[in-house]
Amino acid sequence: MRHHRLYQPHLSAACQLALSADNSHYLCHVVKARVGESIRLFDGHSEGEYHATIVQMDRRHCLVEVGAWQPVERESPLHITLLQGVSKGDRMEWVVQKATELGVSRIVPILSDYSVVKLNLERQQKKQQQWQAIATAATAQSGRCRIATIEPLQSLQAWLQTHPPEPQQLRWLLHPTPLEAPLQPPPPLHPATALLYIGPEGGISDSEIELARQQQFIPITLGRRILRTETATIVALSRLQLAFGDLGGG
Known about the structure:
By secondary structure, the chain is α/β, with parallel strands linked by helices. The protein has 2 domains: about 5-70, CATH 2.40.240.20; about 80-245, SPOUT methyltransferase, trefoil knot domain (Alpha/beta knot). Helices cover about 30% and strands about 25% of the residues. The chain has 6 helices and 11 strands. It has helices spanning about 20-30, 90-100, 120-140, 155-160, 205-215, 230-245, and strands at about 5, 15-20, 40, 50-55, 60-70, 80-85, 105-110, 150, 170-175, 195-200, 220. The strands form 2 sheets. The chain has a 6-stranded parallel beta sheet with strand order 8-7-6-10-9-11, with helices on both faces. It has a 5-stranded mixed beta sheet with strand order 1-3-4-5-2. β3 and β4 (about 50-55) form a beta hairpin. α2 (about 90-100) runs parallel beside α6 (about 230-245). The model has no long low-confidence stretch (mean pLDDT about 90).
């Protein structure tokens, strides 16, 4: 039996609820659901979901009976922030989707020194909204309950100024060639949080590398082959989750 899973804010148990226009359209016209079918709803911030039943629907509206809240544990114990250099085309959309599926908690689009993409403030805001919608859809698809947050586009320096190193935090700087690690305290054996900085297709400038190293980022490489930025992101996130998170766990 199919069970469609949808994001719906402001949920509570034991009530009737009119779904959003987008969710109603999806159920009525995309999957052609019927009255009496069961669906699952999540609000994006709690560690669980609600079971609901469609009780009424027409071409534009869908009314459901919301049942009990059920706890769901699908979040990684490692809280990951991805600092992703903004790339051109659909690469950023792909990264947002796959990073959300891999359990990232927060994505910060970085306008780096070598970013090819140039956006005015209005287009930056539209892109942020678009990427947030992609993260929401990926959360529903992957079974997660907490939606990855997409922060406003900004420079690496601006973000690091307000986010100093924290205790038990691992910071990785991805670079295609090995770099000497700076003298600093050893990385935690069991980090609670992790930061991963990956540049755009143009790479990372020397000044950004130096800035990251000053902020306790550890330079890492993923091997002898040069990976595209979107490929490198998925490989590095998988490496983090395998070592410190829940990828591959039971």
